[in-house]
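If your schedule permits, I should be very grateful for your opinion on a structural question. I have a record of one protein: its chain in single-letter code and its fold written as discrete structure tokens. Would you kindly read the sequence against the tokens and tell me how you understand this chain to fold? Thank you for your consideration; the sequence and its tokens are set out here.


***
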Amino acid sequence: MLMKNRGLFITMFLMLSAIVFSDISSAQEDVDVVIYSGYFSREQNDGDMAEMSGKSHYVKFYRDNRFIRLYIPYPYSKTVTPEAIREVFQVVNKQSAGSAYIKDTFGVLDEKIIAHIDVFRRIDGEIMFDCGFSAPCKIVFDKDVFKVLKKGIVKDHVTQYNYVSE
């Protein structure tokens, strides 16, 4: 029977494929909207992690597969407002189109911070970026957070970032 209605079968197959693809594409766009709309703050940015590393970390993603990481010295980072962080992201994004490390106040802050501009790539549905010599880091998004998974010898290192809306 399917052979007799080959045209109907092909049409149904194409329609089903289009529906599934549009659902996947739509779901990805929804995730991307959240990714690009605000910025992310590393978990415990004003606590133990910042104190141990000497820096608070903030990350913002851009549609052209770029992301900017800000490293703000601790405890100075405790005095920096979310508005100032947003403004620094805007200034840094306008300053450089390629990958770079820039140390500056960016005309916004009282102390110099480091802005690291980098690129990420999508590979087989996963978001990756170069973070070391052994393997790339993987970024996993979930509701209002993302995690950076870095391969380790014994186990993966996981760093969580929380979403900060605009």
